[in-house]
Amino acid sequence: MVTVVVGIQLAISLGYFAVMAHLVSHLRHDLGMLAGTIAVVLGVRVALQYMLFLPVGAITDAIGPARAGALACALRAVGFTLLGTTDGIGELLCAAVVLAVGGALFHPAAQSLLAGVRPARRSRGFAAYVIAGQLGAVAGPPIGLLLLNGGFGLLAAVTACAWAVSAMLFLLLRPRHGFLSSRHGAVTRAGLDVRGLTEGVSLALRDRRFLRFALTVAPSTLLADQIVTVVPLKEVGAGATTLFFCVVAMAAAAIQPWCAADGRGERPWVLRSGLLCAGAGYLTLLAVPPGGDQIIVLSAAAVLHGMAAGLTQSAMFQIITRCAPSQRFGSYFGLLSFLAGAVALAGGFAAGRLLDAGPRGATLVLVGLTLIATIFAAALRVPRPRPRETAPTYELARPGS
Q1: Measuring CA to CA, which of 49, 235, 244, 397 is 20 to 30 A from 173?
Q2: CA dist 91 → 47, 88, 103, 360 (Å)
Q3: Which SS3 state, helix, strand or coil, does residue 328 take?
């Protein structure tokens, strides 16, 4: 099962980043859209995906992660098909909505499957999952550039096919014998238990310790997202910017074996270290010289941000797994992701206003992000894990089953 999920992650990550790296250029140069229109299309997808994490996490618990993953991949396949075949603002907004729903479904579904793996394999499985995603982030854009020789339509079609195949792979996963029904699971022999759609969210919201934890780590997404805006605006050049993000991805992947060994990802100091690395990364960006040799400082900042991403992803997955009741991983993941997305959107808006103010505003953004990371790392309190009940595990369906 882990092999299937990791293989899906690699395939869809390659396709996703292959398209997204060249989407803005397509909208701008091929379709002739204004920058403001492009910002609306991209912003709708991000904002809607974040808002949907809370209800979609509960839906994942209700219909089962394998079905949710298949639905997510099918929706993403439709979304990328629309991106490659439409040129009107209405159709593109429809594609953005479909992509947002698919993205909101995919993450809790894939990670719920990994959370159900035996503890001995869970850390290694999630490490491989993160590495596959980071490999996609590095290799996807150049693959997309090659496919662009056949036009953006070909690139979108190949990506849609990768998502469609992934949907079929999800459908091959079946709960092992003995887990076809469950007191906690919402998918039973009788079908969908509608109450499961609300019970998971209600349970997560009533868990005060986890709610406090989720509020404390909510800035993690803001810290991860702002480098996409801050680094290009440092005007270090396209080559240096590309190198920066490649180093971030490689560092995040490289630290995963260390996180997986001896269950280190479960330890509170790992998450705290990840937040502090993010703060140190922004502080390092303050030292980027306006001219001359910038590569050394940028590389150091990239390594810090990569370590921050790798440490926080591993730690939060393990903490959610240990805190969520059996078959409620999606609801807990959805609550944390929803709060993190809300902070990222609000913080991104505030940072954008400051960045428009010039060099002084950019300095304030970097200092502010450093302080946010430091303050929330100091305030971090990881909730105690609850006793784990037996959760369903999945396996590939045998031919004829």
Answers
A1: 49
A2: 18, 5, 18, 40
A3: coil
Which letter, b or e, does each residue of 134-157 get, where b requires 16 or more Cβ atoms within 10 Å of its Cβ?
bbbbbbbbebbeebbeeebeebbb
pLDDT digits 0-9 by tens, 293-332: 688 889 999 999 999 999 999 999 989 988 888 788 889 9
Taking CA atoms, 152 is separated from 85, 144, 295, in Å, by 9, 9, 32
CA dist., res. 166 & res. 169, Å (int): 5
The reply to whether the predicted model has a pTM over 0.70 is: yes
Q: What is the residue-wise DSSP string for 344-390?
A: HHHHHHHHHHHHTT-HHHHHHHHHHHHHHHHHHHHH--PPPPPPPPP
Q: Tokens representing 89?
A: 């603002």
**81-107: pLDDT as tens digits:** 999 998 888 999 999 999 999 999 999
* Of residues 133, 166, 170, 164, the one with CA closest to residue 394: 170
- Residues linked to residue 174 through DSSP beta bridges, in sequence order: 395
pLDDT beyond 80 at 273: yes
**Number of residues that this document lists for the chain:** 401
Structural contact between residues 67 and 187, judged by C-beta atoms closer than 8 angstroms = yes
Strand locations in 185-258, DSSP E?
A: 187-188, 191-192
Q: What is the C-alpha to C-alpha distance for residues 199 and 276, in angstroms, rounded to an integer?
A: 35
* Tens-digit pLDDT profile for residues 19-35: 988 888 888 888 888 76
